[in-house]
Amino acid sequence: MLACPFRQNKHHVCINVICLFRPAEMSWDFILPVCLGDLVKSGAVNQYVVQDVLSVKQLPSHINSFKAALRSQGPLCILEYFDTAYSVLQHCRTVDVAVKEDTLELLIQGYILNISLCLSQGRKKDKVAGKGLLQWDSERETILQCLTQLLQLDIRTLWSLSLVEEEFVSCVTCCCYKLLENPTISHVKSKSTRDAIIHVLGIMVKKYNHMLGACVKVIQLLQHFEQLASVCAAAVASWSSEYGVKAIVGEIMREIGQKSSEELAREGSGVKAFSSFLSELSTLVPETMIPNISVLLTHLEGESPSLRVAVCEVLGEVLVRVLSGDKLDDSARASRDRFLDTLQEHIHDAHSHVRARVLQVYARIVNSKALPLCKYTEVMELTVGRLGDKSVHVCKSAIQLLAAFIAHNPYSCKLSSVDLTKPLEKEMAKLKEMRDSQKEQVPVAVITAADLWDAMKPELEMTVKAQLEPGSEEEDNEDEEETGGDEERSDRDTALQIAQFLRESKYRKAVGLCMRAHSLFPESSFFSDLADLNAETLIKTLATLFKGPEQVTPEAVSSDAPPTPQKEGGGNEGGESELKKQEMLVQYLKDTESFALQVERSIAVINNMLYWKTTTVVQEAVQFCVTAFEFSVANSVCGVRKMLPLVWSTDVTIKDSVIQAYRRLYLNPHGDNTRAKAQTLVDNLSDLMIDASLGTVQCLEEIVQEFFSSESALQTSVVQVLWERFSGKRETKALHRRAAVLLLGMAARAEREVVLSNLDTLCSVALGEKVAEDYLLARDTLITIANITDHVRQSKGVPFRLPMDHHLFSCLSQAIADGLVQSDPHWQTFMEQAVRLIYFLAESPDQLCSRLLQRSAHLLLEQITEGGEPNQSQLQESGSQGSEEQVNCVSLAQVLSLCGAVAFWQVSHLERSVSAELRRRRGEKEEKEEKEKAPANKKDANDSCVEEELGLVGASAEDTEVEFIRKICETELLSEGNMLSAFLPLLVKVCSSPGKYSHSQLTTAACLALSQYMMISPAVCKDNIRLLFTVLEKSPLPVVRANTIVALGDLTVRFPNILEPWTPNLYARLSDESASVRLTAIMVLTQLVLKDVMKVKGQVSEVAVLLLDPEPHIASLALNFFNELSAKDNAIYNLLPDIISRLSDPERGMKEEDFNTIMKQLFSYITKERQTESLVEKLCQRFRTAKTEQQWADLAVSLSLLSVCERGFKKLQECWDCYSDKLTEPGVYQPLLSIAAKLRRRAKPQFKAHVEDYEKRLTAVHTKGLENVDNEEREQQMGDTQSQNLQTPRPHKSVRKTTRGRGKPKLDDSDLVTPRKSRSRPKPAITFSSDEEEEDDAVMAESETPKVTTPIARTRRTRLRH
Q1: What's the chain's Rg over C-alpha atoms?
Q2: 551 vs 851 pLDDT, higher one
Q3: Where are the alpha helices (DSSP H) in 410-485?
Q4: How far apart are CA 1255 and CA 163, in angstroms?
Q5: Are 479 and 508 in contact (CB under 8 A)?
Q6: Residue 1030: band (very low, low, confident or very high) from pLDDT cuts 50, 70, 90
Q7: Which portions of the chain have biased composition (kind: Basic residues) (predicted)?
Q8: Average of pLDDT values for 973-979?
Q9: CA–centroid distance for 1131 within its chain
Q10: Crossing angle between the packed helical segments 615-630 and 573-608, to the nearest 10 degrees
């Protein structure tokens, strides 16, 4: 709302109002009064005067009438109600404030409406005043536009001397500034009003000398209204550009630049407003800010981060918008380089927000191609360093800048340092040859004779003047003696001699010889000018002799004149230009290689950021990997593959980012037609599939499946290209054929008919007669076929299976049997996939596999019969016979592998397929029964509903099915009539006799098969668990130990009660000498512990040791184990005391540095105050049972790693007795002293005194010993008591003597909190017998077998995992 304050002379208000309200057609004459009383005096005809002065009581009613008249009649009603306004002024001191305010409001409204009426004569009267008096939002814009038009008129004649009064300027501008204070003025809906205000103020600044006032007001608005930063910036930019008042920008910048740090500290929100204002202003008028930027640079050294950011953004806008391009003059280039150096310094600013924004400014500069080429390497190196910044925002900005560097690099579209090495070496060799050839050429004079003459002329003139003086005759005589024989020379030889003297800088001799030559050769043309001997003629003659071509004969010039570059250097210009071009090319290649190396260095860091917890950083890392891959940066494909598992991320934004990235890289090919696009897409996906791990392939399935699920014109063409590659219609590499068939399998997950309709083609191409040539292609073909099964597609309904006599199964049986007697290393994986597919797809897979086992056994027996029984002695007899036995061992190993695979998938088939089919049939039967008959009566219906709610109906039936499957596994699978039972004794014999069966492949296959047999029933597991752990402890083969750990992990899930006593043996493998075994052990134990299959016990200390494993991957897995374990409530807190005791055990012999490193990591998970307090007490109690000085020191170090608070410190004081007798040891004293030092730094004054007392006590006990300190305290207390008794006799009381820190009553030995020795059984000692002593029995003794101590209750039987 517009407002105008009362002036001191109130009659001026009325005068101004009447002047503006007086219409042209009225016959009244208004004479300006000298004083207020003149308005009631009539001194002329038709003079307008006040007719009646109202009383105070009459004013309210007349004001209401005035208000109604203004609403209906408009501003002209003032002529009728002027007496009312005058009466208010007359009774100003006695009338109520409300009356005065209402009157003023009416006058202002009428004033503004009258202006609108006068300036818009074409409008209708009711249109102006029809919307009501107080509808300011609708009238404000119109009034401001009218005011703008008024101010643009020449109104200076309204004032004396044609000078506009400052009061008028203030009246208008104050209204505008008051409007700007409206909180909604910066909203979009207020844009028109905002622009109108800016234009009004612009006119005032330009025409009415309001610039300084506007500067002050803008600063004040920014100080008090932070939201006006953008509005003020737009206003100042408009005044500068549209109204030409550019000086106002500099004035405001100087005002902000002169603010001191103390002033800015008091500003509060004003600092943010200043920063936003400068940033906004730089985007609008950057060129106007350049002359005054220096006043802002002082804030770069200030304490305000927001102002530092603003100044850096100003520099960035200036560099992008003004100081860019190649046409800058020297001054602009200097300014540009200075601004870039300033920005570069703040990449390492102390505040993370400033560092992040500076990197963003650089990203804008790079995207705008405004960064000079000479700065690329330096800024790039600094940016790569910021990838290790502690701030997430800085890392994100650094990634964005690096991506901008790659996308807008001026070097090459392919940034591979490997590809650049050879061209660089080639061009450097070429440059060296060019330089060598350049050196071999005769040096060419670069300076002409005229240039040399100009250089020597000043000194030569001085020599001539000296020679022409009278006192130089003696010197001339000396020169004549030195240059004797002048008469014998000709005039030409003399001229050449003079030129030679000049070239040798022998000016005095040259001048003397020249002076004598005229007397010797007066008629010679060389010296004819010397007839009049003076300085001028002498210099002229010398110049002619030296420069030669003009006066001297051609023979003289050609014989001895100095060569000129115009004649002799012209042939060399081409060579020099070529050399320069080659040098520029070599430098370009060097810069490109350096840039590529820095990009490759950043890739390794950014790839690790793909798994950060910050979503925005992960998204930026994904985009960077895509950009790097598009520019063919070396190792960029590693990042593309590493981000692939993120398709399983629970964060939708990350998952979408990865999917979009792969679509951009692989699924949106470029080509002239659909066929070309399909070829490109297949090539891209095939390259990604080559050498990809199993996890990568599984992740890629998700993306490819989504591609085939969506409607795309490329799908048909892509499938056709894949079939052509697989079938061999086009000449294709073996790796690309395998990739093609796997991609077909991924497509089959979305559409089954892609594979099902071409099943015969798959069998004939990959599983036919040539299957032995490429078992890997056959294996991948089986994986593809498996994608059409219900197990993979997770289909519900009638299971999809093929009959036993299908061509596919005959091909599989034949391929397995043929490969059984061969030694192909890839047959094993093919066989496993074949057995899996049989159980997934065949109608009666058990019968098929039984026949397959019989056929395999016959083939093996035939081979053994031909070659003899395989044993160790026969293998060493002869070379030929040894090779035969080697084949027998391989064949036996493959048969045992087949047995294990059949046993595993048979159990899986029963518990998954058969069980699922039983449930499906039961469900169909129940649905059919429910439809056939309704409940007999209401009671039966109610009972049925209650049973359904309690879950009793399905539970009992399901338990029956589970019991049925369990009974089959325990009684029928290994019965005498089953083929599987025939191989179990052989497996046990091979595993228990490592001396006799020492072939590595045979041992590996037998142990794996035995573990798969143990999955069948608890009885088989109990019978052979001791043997399996013996193999785990004894086997010299790391692969056997690793496989056994995996098998034991599966057995732990299936039979936890049987495996629970053997838990320490599993943890023991964490310290295995083989890195592969340790890696497998940590992975298996992590899964068992985090899924609550295995109880977490003190053996976790073995996992803690792996935090320092030399293998980085193992150490990272151990760290991940504790990170995940810390998410479980109090898990690490409960384990810490036991971990500390085990790691500080003297028998382990752990180094102090290693212990400290491990504990530092583990204690970082303790964040709750209650846990810290409890751990302080527990660790202090451990001092009582610790026996060695090293254990004391470890406990003290552990205490110092806790974030001890006030409550924890009190607990530390209460446990003084536990550790006070160990304080003489430096290893105990120093950590405890550091605890006190940390507490003292952040303690309050009252608590600080207690901490200082504790420090003094620690120091006293450390230096003097505990007994001496206790004696001193007792003596001091005894002395204090006696002095008090002597001074004031008191009645005798039984006073209990107390000692500081020992205020509690004395405890008996039975009260001490000392851990009791548990009656745990001794650790089983496993004795391994050598092969030479006991070859047939390498199993643990019965006494060494752990007994079940903690049965794990299970409500339902755990089924076998797939």
Answers
A1: 50
A2: 851
A3: 417-440, 449-468, 473-482
A4: 80
A5: yes
A6: very high
A7: 1290-1304
A8: 77
A9: 31
A10: 150
Q: Which of 1159, 1168, 1161 is nearest to 1198 (CA)?
A: 1159
Q: What is the pLDDT of residues 747-757, one digit of tens each?
A: 888 888 888 88
pLDDT at 519 over 60: yes
Report the C-alpha gap between 1015 and 1303 in whole angstroms.
62
| Cα–Cα dist 960/34, whole Å | 116
Number of H helices, E strands in the chain: 65, 0
Decide: 287 and 249 in contact? Cβ < 8 Å: no
Beta bridge partners of 29: 47
Sorted by sequence, the CB contacts under 8 Å of residue 276 that are 6+ apart come out as 226, 229, 230, 233, 310
Q: CA nearest 628: which of 643, 647, 650?
A: 643
Residue type, 372: P
Query: Quick one: pLDDT at residue 2?
Result: 34
Q: And the tokens for 819? A: 């490969």
Packed helices 78-90 and 11-21: angle between N→C axes, nearest 10 degrees: 180
Residue where the block lists tokens 């110092």: 1200
Using CB atoms within 10 Å of the CB of residue 1362, give its burial: 0 to 12 exposed, 13 to 18 middle, 19+ buried: exposed
What span, in angstroms and rounded, lies between the C-alpha atoms of 939 and 1105?
65
**Sequence-separated (6 or more) residues with CB below 8 Å from residue 1306:** none
Residue 324: which of 378, 370, 357, 360 has the closest Cα?
370
| pLDDT tens, position by position, 1074-1091 | 999 999 999 999 999 888
Beta bridge partners of 842: 802
381-390 long-range contacts (CB < 8 A, ≥24 apart) are 381/598, 382/344, 382/347, 382/348, 383/347, 383/359, 383/602, 384/598, 384/601, 384/602, 384/605, 386/347, 386/355, 386/359, 387/602, 387/605, 387/606, 387/609, 388/605, 389/352, 389/355, 390/352
Distance CA 266, CA 268 (A): 6
Q: Contact, 606 vs 387, CB < 8 A?
A: yes
Contact 217, 180 (CB under 8 A): no
Of 180, 193, 267, which Cα lies nearest the Cα of 229? 180
Residue 1155's region, left for phi above 0, alpha for psi from -120 to 50, else beta, is alpha
What whole-number distance in Å separates Cα of residue 1242 and Cα of residue 534?
Answer: 96
pLDDT band at 324 (very low <50, low <70, confident <90, very high): confident
Q: How many CA atoms lie within 13 A of 917 on its CB side?
A: 13
DSSP at 842: B
In this prediction, residues 1259-1278 reach a mean pLDDT of 64
Q: Which residues contact 183 (CB under 8 A, 6 or more apart)?
A: 227
Each residue of 207-251: pLDDT tens digit?
A: 888 888 888 888 888 888 888 888 888 888 888 888 888 888 888
CA diameter of the chain: 159
Instruction: Say how many C-beta atoms besides its own lie within 10 A of residue 1080's C-beta.
Output: 22
Residue 747, burial from CB neighbour count under 10 angstroms (0-12, 13-18, 19+): buried
- Quickly state the pLDDT bin for 899 (edges 50, 70, 90): very high
Question: What is the DSSP code (8-state) at residue 716?
Answer: H
Place of tokens 């007397």: 519
DSSP-based three-state secondary structure for 1130: coil
Please classify residue 1149 by burial: count the beta carbons closer than 10 Å to its beta carbon, then call 0-12 exposed, 13-18 middle and 19+ buried: exposed
List CB contacts of 1028: < 8 A, sequence separation 6 or more.
991, 1007, 1010, 1011, 1014, 1044, 1047, 1048
Residues in the chain, total? 1362
Beta bridge partner(s), residue 802: 842
Query: What is the dihedral sign for C-alpha 805, 808, 813, 818?
Result: positive
| Alpha-carbon gap, residue 707 to 715, rounded angstroms | 8
Helix ranges (DSSP H) in 290-375: 305-321, 330-345, 352-367
